[in-house]
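User: ok so my PI wants both of these folded by tonight, can you help

Assistant: No problem, let's get them done. Here's the first:
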Amino acid sequence: MTWILPVLIRHRRSTRQVAALRGVTTPMTVLDAAVVVLALVVLLGLLLLLGVVRRLRDHTERLHRLERGRPPVDTVPANLDIGNFTATSLRGESVSADWLVGGESVVAFLTYGCSACKVQLPALRDHAGTPGGKVLIVAALVPGEEPDPTALRAEVGDTPVIVEEQFGGPIQHGFRVDKYPTFYLVGADGAPKATAGSLRDLLRARTELQVGTTAS
């Protein structure tokens, strides 16, 4: 429909030019009314499109979660022991379970070929940029997928600590990860507090946990 509007405008302009040459004043016609109506319709369509784009990411997250059949937030067993893992980050930093102690952190488990994981990367970048936004990203190396740590770093920025390990590696095993993406909220004591399939749901659960702790 949008291509009709320029055609009508050009046609009306030509009509007025011809009328001006003849010295004739042309009143508003059906064509003028059609141009106005089409302009309003196009404007309304653009406004609706902006609303759809704004909600697209949220809907995408919900669809991925429904496809996996997992609830928004899962509770973590009180006796979950993640083990004393050790790893080396992409920047050469030594990372272990002790790294999680001393401040609240988010541990994100992703794979390079996971489309649902890529949707979460902007949110990870934003959270890592907030005060106290301590983030550990564990990139699982799945057979058949092409690792691209450079692209991952470009998406999440320089703040998160990124570790690569083989699919089903010790960190994934310690956190009992069997779906991707998976996010864990880890307390200052190094113990997991909550887990979710999206960072937004995890941070919402963190707020609820803080409210519950304050109330008690």
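One down. Here's the second:
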Amino acid sequence: MAFKGVDVGSEAYKSLELDTSGSMRVPRALLSLSSVLERSIEKNEKLLISSTRARENEPVTIFHSTKTPNISVRHYIERIFKYSRCSPSCFVIAQIYMDRFFQHRGGYLTSLNVHRLLITSAMIAAKFSDDGRCANAYYAKIGGVSNAEMNGMELEFLFVVDFRLFVTTEEFEKYCEQLDNAIAEDYRRQNRRVLRTARGG
């Protein structure tokens, strides 16, 4: 279930596929995905700072690091893509899985849990949709965690989402359309910065 050959009309979906030269250039959609996650983290962390109730309801899980990793979300996604060789569509599916995780568990995506949730959800997506054959130990090296941690995170994640891994074409397309909107917003932000610079502001 890698959504190959599916007639999904969004520009984000089109940008998921590698070019015919076999280049491992990071697809535009994955860069936009990193922007979506980073904006979500910024929003969530502002809420956690301002709301005592939100902090009290934020569960500490196996996915939480003791401190924020030094690698950015964008570079972490690029690292996973480069070394795992999973299809770009895996990252869309991973995002769907992460949303399901928070729907079941509660809590918020933050700079303390995003990296471990990303490597876990990407690995599970690759196994389910790409027939990934890489061992958990290999993903652990990519993600910068121990093999025991990788195994524990996979098991915890699967139980939280109740092993619901199937993604419909409609759901996949919906997330692609969200990336379309994110791509458009990124362009608008870049254009506004260029205009401000040109005006000396």
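The longest helix spans residues 169-198. The domain at 27-198 is CATH 1.10.472.10 (Cyclin A; domain 1). Good luck tonight!
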